[in-house]
């Protein structure tokens, strides 16, 4: 199935899709002391939205516009950094090729 990957400008849509893609991970529902924290990661994403050194991509099925994944990239000096645990793709859409399409688009942007 064909995919489209575009830069996402909506914080709300990106965060909603990010949550769906992260929901299956062990730290998402219950943070522990030495692990990732969902709320801290969301705040970091929100703080980077709109910054010139950050970009956020969203993958959709071309046919029905169903959103299936996101990828955020942040530039630190001369290095592009993928956001931790991304691309974020829900488990049931993992074999769609969305993760690969997002990373490919990210590399082209860099």
Which regions are unreliable across 5 or more consecutive residues at pLDDT < 50?
Answer: none
Largest sheet: 4 strands, antiparallel
- Quaternary structure annotation: single chain
- Mass-distribution shape: globular
- What is the rounded distance between the termini? 26 Å
In total, the number of strands is: 4
CATH architecture: 3-Layer(aba) Sandwich
Average of per-residue pLDDT values: 89
User: Structural class per helix/strand content?
Assistant: alpha+beta
Proportion of residues in β-strands:
15-25%
> How is the CATH topology named?
Aminopeptidase
Question: How many structural units, i.e. domains?
Answer: 1
CATH superfamily: Gcn5-related N-acetyltransferase (GNAT)
CATH class categorisation: Alpha Beta
State the helicity in percent bands: 25-40%
How many helical elements?
Answer: 3
- How would you spell out the order of helices and strands? EHHEEEH
In what order do the strands lie side by side in the largest sheet?
1-2-3-4
Q: Which value, in Å, is the CA radius of gyration?
A: 14 Å
Q: What does this 3D model show about the protein?
A:
It is a single chain. The chain is globular, with a radius of gyration of 14 Å. The chain has a four-stranded antiparallel sheet, with helices on both faces. The longest helix has 12 residues, at 11-22. With 110 residues, the protein is α+β, with helices and mostly antiparallel strands. The chain has one domain (3-109): Gcn5-related N-acetyltransferase (GNAT) (Aminopeptidase), CATH 3.40.630.30. The protein has three helices and four strands. The protein has helices spanning 11-22, 38-48, 98-109; strands at 3-7, 54-61, 67-76, 79-82. β2 (54-61) and β3 (67-76) form a beta hairpin.
